[in-house]
Amino acid sequence: MTSSETSTQRIPPFVSLGSARAFGVSPVATTANQFNPVAGTVAAKVSRETAARGNVLDTLDDSSPIARELAHENRRRERLLGRDLPKPEKTRIFTVSNQKGGVGKTTTTVNIAAALAAAGLNVLVIDIDPQGNASTALGIEHHADVDSIYDVLINDVALEDVVAPCPDISNLICAPATIHLAGAEIELVSLVAREQRLRRAIDVYAKARQKKGEQRLDYIFIDCPPSLGLLTVNAFCAAGEVLIPIQCEYYALEGLSQLLKNIEMIQKHLNADLEVSTILLTMYDGRTNLAAQVAAEVRQHFPDQVLDAVVPRSVRISEAPSYQQTVMTYDPSSSGALSYLEAAAEIAER
Q: pTM for the whole thing?
């Protein structure tokens, strides 16, 4: 057997470097130790000496920007570790919407849902975006032969028959989307009570869970397509709260006023209980003045809705979907994961 074959067997291709770092293991050291017992012994000795000295981050001062950043992230991590999040008095249903594409709707949906589920809360993600990106990030099958949210909306299939558990996180389930949703906008036009079909499906599912003696859902997140069509209208009618991710760039502000006008129309005619409760600033780049100006302007206009947590641009967040994971499981120690943990905690404690 060649050395390359041995390497392939011992290190599966789906194990990412981020996953190794998430458990405090150096991927390089792990690989070396498997083939070099001496290296493994030395690494173990160094590890013991490090443990005896205490946390390296505790010795860092603020003499350099990197040291300050590491110390700051360490303090954030300590605040979040072992934090218990309160259960809501009733199921909170969020529509995650913004008609502008590429602002982080799906990323926000799956990572906040994963953070809440990891804290022991029962969470459902409903993917009504024909692209099915939320289903991909949660590791849920969503090919054309799978029963999906399309069948719930168009063919009156029960929601409990399409939901599937997330393989990486307990308490997290997902109703997947398939490509069939691309034509659902047209098919919904001729159906009775077309705007309320998702809401009725959720109500029936909640009663079915209660009848089976299952715990009620604490949170439901509906991931919308980047448009304001009938699929998004269904999501608005089913939800009580709207979560709007806003990219910290100028174009994101232009579309916000149109989105708010559409929400106002839904409130007047279809769902009087709907409110914009949460705005999350995403893709924040602290090196630019523009990001700071956009953040300040949004906070000025929506002081009660904007979360204190801000999601930075992060390579780890971008990499996670390629492994069919959220950043919470791909690299839970990354700055992106910490930001979504903070956002989830804020939402739960509001």
A: 0.78
